[in-house]
Specification:
The chain is mainly α. The chain is built from four helices and no strands. The protein has one domain.
Length: about 150
């Protein structure tokens, strides 16, 4: 059962990190290159779909990681679990205020605020990508060398 949970943790973290990396390296730069009107228009539906997927993966992966830690007492698994779980409060504390402003229908695509908000969101999302990627690497390392 521990190997199964370790695999669930690693796969969940890997999917989270992969999706986050795609958004940071491909989707967000592409949306930014289209100008504020298209960027805001694309961000809104993209965010709503991505938020559900990424939150679910972070919670599933960290929960599985905590179960593995409980059974093995491997401090690295605890670190990976905490890193993956940390994306949830990071999102709520740091990214959600920016998300709310970007999702506000009152924010016009020609607003002077749109580009700085999108730029800020990109930097914050990159931090979330790093947290998830580090968790994935730790889980993968412990799964293959545990």
């Amino acid at each position: 059962m521990t190997t199964l949970m370790a695999s669930v943790a690693a796969v969940s973290a890997g999917l989270f990190a992969g999706a986050a990396l795609y958004v940071s390296a491909v989707e967000h730069p592409a949306r930014m290159s289209c100008g504020p009107a298209i960027a805001i228009g694309e961000f809104r539906p993209s965010y709503k779909r991505g938020a559900i997927m990424q939150a679910s993966l972070a919670l599933l992966g960290s929960g599985a990681g905590f179960m593995v830690f409980w059974n093995q007492r491997d401090p690295w698994i605890l670190v990976g679990s905490l890193l993956l779980l940390s994306v949830v409060p990071f999102t709520l504390l740091f990214i959600l205020p920016t998300n709310k402003r970007l999702l506000d229908p009152a924010l016009g695509s020609d607003s002077n605020h749109a580009v700085p908000l999108l730029t800020r969101w990109g930097r914050l999302h990159a931090a979330r990508t790093a947290l998830g990627s580090l968790a994935f690497l730790i889980f993968l390392w412990r799964l293959t060398n545990g």
